[in-house]
UniProtKB/TrEMBL annotation:
Residues 1-27, 58-141, 178-204 are annotated as: Disordered. The keyword Phosphoprotein does not apply. The chain crosses the membrane at residues 246-268, 280-300, 306-324, 345-366, 372-391, 403-421, 427-450, 589-611, 617-635, 647-665, 700-720. Keywords: Membrane, Transmembrane, Transmembrane helix. This is Nucleobase-ascorbate transporter 11.
Amino acid sequence: METGSSSDSVGKLELQRERATANTKLGSTLPKIEPFVSRTHNPRELKSWAKRTGFVSTFSSETTTSNSEKFDSSTGFDLERGLHHHKNGGSSPKIEIDPILGRTRPARGSEIEPASGSASRSGNEFRNGNGRSLGLRDEKKRRRIGDESVVGVKDGERKVGLNGNGIGIGNVNVNGSGARNESVNGTVNEIPATTPPMEPKKEEENAGTDIGIEMYPGGDDPDTGGWHRHSGMRLGLRDNPGFVSLMYYALQHYLSLAGSLIFIPLIIVPAMGGTDKDTATVISTMLLLSGITTILHSYFGTRLPLVQGSSFVYLAPALVIMNAREYRNLSEHKFRHIMREIQGAIIIGSIFQSILGFTGLMSLLLRLINPVVVAPTVAAVGLAFFSYGFPQAGSCVEVSVPLILLVLIFSLYLRGLSIFGHRLFQIYAVPLSIMIIWTYAFFLTAGGAYDYKGCSPDIPSSNILLDSCRRHAYTMQHCRTDVSNAWRTSAWVRIPYPLQWGVPIFHLRTSMIMIIVSLVASVDSVGTYHSTSLLINSKPPTPGIVSRGIALEGFCSILAGLWGSSTGSTTLTENMHTINITKVANRRAVVLGAVFLILFSFVGKVGAILASIPLSLAASILCFMWGLIVALGLSTLQYGQTSSFRNIAIVGVSLFLGLSIPAYFQQYQPESSLILPSYFVPYGAASNGPVHTSSKQFDFAINALMSMSMVVTLLIAFVLDNTVPGTRQERGVYIWSNPEDLATDPSIYADYSLPTKVSRFFCWSRCLRT
């Protein structure tokens, strides 16, 4: 329909006469219908009236079928192609609503409810399956459908609803003296009823508009400022509640991410042959880099409130490198040799990632990255460690099982419990559980639960001569709280510095591995960018901004390689969960928390305390964190059609082969399985895999990549999603903003634009080049 001219009074009168004539003709053939008067404001009351008067039969399946045939032959509305003009006039086309950026919704039965409690609403208001009204709004806030002119609201009002098949249902009041129900195919039933008067402000807002259908959640088109209503958020992106409140929200944000920030060194450093002091140093280095990279990303990256840190994406390749054949029997300076090898690989892979972002190649690659690719890839990152999780935690079941249960109770069963207006159990589930079970393990240790006759926990298991003590050495190492000597050996003040472990070592084989892994990290970050932007009710970034964020992540990973944090730096997937449960998506709070991380990294005893956490506790928490990553990855499928067989097949096949193919490569175990613990055997396939060519460097890289679930899953999902036919709605293609949107909307521009001085610098540099 097209908007009628409110200024042409002659046109209005002619149109009213035509409609009055049509009503007279139809009224002679159609029965009179009693008016609907709501007495109890019960939705069933209007349904009962509709069935009694025959209103429902007007929009029965027969009418819908006949109308859909007309629409299929005469017009169409495709979200990929836009609004098509009608060939023969007619009425609104049959459409499929796309409410959330590429996600389609299955057809639902129509639900008709009376409008209640508002003087600004007149007549009957139709609601969709979610209870959200579909009615008239300002022209700027609607997608227009149809080509029929209507009279302004001052002369009459028109409301539109949707039936289960997406066909509009209208309710028109003419001149305030009567009402008539009008379906989209032109069938009209006259109802001699009057409606309450409208407020003048509402009349002015709706005057001269046509029937519109809300295409976006909350009823606001992304072209308006409605995206910046921080729906459900306690603190918005650019809000400033004051320093004290910011300090509280900052600590809350980072404490909820504690499991992702500090537990990787507890696994990787002992496996590399490092001491407790080395573990404390790596933790302090990781805190420093997480603070620096988060500040850089908040000001120069996408500028979303996302914490950067050591990602689990880089954990699998680090385990592969450290379990290479040449490092298995190395005893002297083993930790430093492996760390330098990992540093060199991370630097090369990060340089590739930076080039991918700064050259704009990532903007082209975004066209091929969709939720069906992101979901199984991120899920595979968590599933890749199933062979390590509980086998490591099971070394001390009296500690690990209560910890897992307590985390689940806090995060699931007590998530709705509010204390002083804050859901403390849901937000602080991980740190609270660790503190309680750590205290419990301390009492077990002090009470002699892990004391064995003639055995000392301070003596390494390799030096224990008694077989009885050797059998209990593993339990003492993983369960006792007094095994670590990090507190005694760490300094009070220590500042991590670049190249603290030595000059990085560069090898082709490890560089090839990290280049591919950097692609996996980029895909992970793309999904996090998009989901977070929708979560905070902002408009998605442009492809250029996404490329800028990926480029900066590559630069931050270069810093991680120089400092030696054992893994690269990337956007933590768990950010989405933290923002969702804390309802805080504030840039200032994230930056202030990053400053605290930097200050804590200078205090060596902080890293020592964290390094003293027993390995069984760390493995138990990681079981929960890896499961959470799997869930967050699969939740990305909400942007596509989850009921589509195409998507189900792609995700299922990708995940299954992503686990099964690496299992094939991992069955080629080392010649002596005693060299590696059982939970590290799968990561030794790089040196013993089935690929054998003339180049040992190439053999190592291919065997390593094919033994990692996330790489195989990404490869299969990427190929299938971009070759199997499917519509954009079915695939849930990510819809990124256009640069023109940022230029025309200052509020959106402020969310993603670089700081003023930095923008002036780039403009000045551009002017010099021209």
